[in-house]
């Protein structure tokens, strides 16, 4: 219980991952404006205007902010579901390839390992594609050198990797390593991987409507700049700090929506895509260490060891 309280306090005071650095300049500007209005009030200028409190009803602004944040979180959660589905589909397809594709030579085992690594390469290429980053050395150990060079020239690398996986499955079927039912099931799982990619692209390429984002920012700015006028007559010199506190709350809620509406970047509040891809690679490496017991070649060569690279 004590540790939980310490953790709560440490998190409450944490700057990394919070919206404080983003909203601080706006908050400071509104607070200074509140101080300026307090100074004018002390010189008996007619700045106390209670009617300004009703220009933008708080409930209207609150509903707009809640809608903004809920919409952004829905996009964040949808992105997490797409990646969760991708992880499960990669695991299922890897298991089916490892167990279902018959091995009759060492070459068959090498090709299977290469195909399993392409499943991870698809996920890594998807991550880079969503972040709009170029193909980098993270993909190089997951494929042949010629494939890596080819991928650097492609406009849509994840689809090219999916094509290579599908081509491998079709080749195994033509060599009687798979039957038609197995091939169909594996292609369905490959389609699920591409569907997860499409779901992420839909989130990425469907931003918040510009008119809504602009209007909300305008209302926030007007509300925070009008706030000192109905407050100054009651709280005097405290107008600046109170306006800054209220502004921080409102700007912070809006900034949270901005932070999470695109969950595929590298910000602290984005999805941990690097960790997810690393987990997939570890899963594949673990799977490769398990020898399918029903493969004739493995039964004849129980101590076979092949370098996955």
Short description:
With 309 residues, this protein is an all-alpha fold.
Break the fold down into its secondary structure elements and pairings:
Elements: H1 2-12, H2 20-42, H3 58-100, H4 106-130, H5 145-151, H6 157-174, H7 180-204, H8 210-226, H9 228-235, H10 239-260, H11 273-288, H12 296-300
Helix pairs in contact: 2-9, 2-10, 3-4, 3-7, 3-10, 3-11, 4-6, 4-11, 6-7
Count of runs of 4 or more consecutive helical residues: 12
H/E element string?
Answer: HHHHHHHHHHHH
Which percent band covers the strand fraction? under 5%
Main sheet attributes: strand count, strand direction, barrel closure: none
User: Average pLDDT value?
Assistant: 89
The outline comes out as elongated
Overall SS class: mainly alpha
* Total beta strands: 0
Integer-rounded radius of gyration: 28 Å
Structure notes:
With 309 residues, this protein is mostly helical. It has one domain (21-291). It has 12 helices and no strands. It has helices spanning 2-12, 20-42, 58-100, 106-130, 145-151, 157-174, 180-204, 210-226, 228-235, 239-260, 273-288, 296-300. Helix 3 (58-100) packs parallel to helix 10 and helix 4 packs antiparallel against helix 6. The longest helix is centred in the N-terminal third of the chain and has 43 residues, at 58-100.
């Amino acid at each position: 219980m004590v540790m939980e309280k310490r953790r709560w306090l440490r998190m409450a005071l944490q700057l990394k991952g919070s919206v404080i650095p983003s909203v601080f300049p706006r908050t400071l500007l509104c607070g200074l404006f509140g101080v300026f209005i307090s100074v004018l009030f002390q010189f008996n200028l007619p700045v106390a205007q209670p009617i300004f409190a009703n220009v933008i009803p708080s409930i209207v602004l609150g509903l707009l902010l809640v809608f903004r944040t809920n919409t952004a979180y829905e996009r964040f959660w949808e992105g997490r579901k797409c990646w969760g589905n991708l992880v499960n589909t990669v695991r299922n397809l890897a298991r089916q390839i490892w167990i279902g594709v018959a091995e009759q030579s060492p070459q068959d085992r090498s090709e299977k390992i290469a195909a399993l690594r392409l499943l991870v390469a698809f996920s890594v290429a998807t991550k880079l594609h969503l972040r709009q980053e170029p193909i980098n050395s993270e993909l190089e150990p997951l494929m042949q050198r010629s494939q890596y060079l080819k991928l650097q020239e492609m406009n849509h690398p994840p689809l090219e990797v999916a094509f290579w996986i599908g081509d491998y499955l079709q080749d195994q079927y033509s060599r009687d390593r798979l039957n038609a039912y197995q091939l169909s099931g594996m292609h369905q799982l490959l389609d699920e991987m591409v569907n997860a990619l499409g779901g992420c692209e839909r989130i990425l390429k469907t931003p918040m409507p510009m008119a809504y984002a602009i209007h909300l920012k305008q209302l926030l700015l007007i509300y925070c700049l009008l706030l000192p006028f109905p407050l100054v007559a009651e709280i005097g010199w405290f107008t600046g700090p109170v306006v800054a506190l209220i502004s921080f709350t409102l700007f912070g809620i809006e900034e949270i929506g901005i932070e999470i509406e695109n969950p595929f970047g590298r910000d602290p509040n984005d999805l941990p895509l690097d960790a997810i891809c690393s987990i997939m690679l570890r899963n594949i490496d673990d799977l490769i260490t398990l020898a399918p017991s029903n493969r004739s070649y493995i039964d004849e060569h129980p101590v076979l060891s092949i370098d996955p690279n």
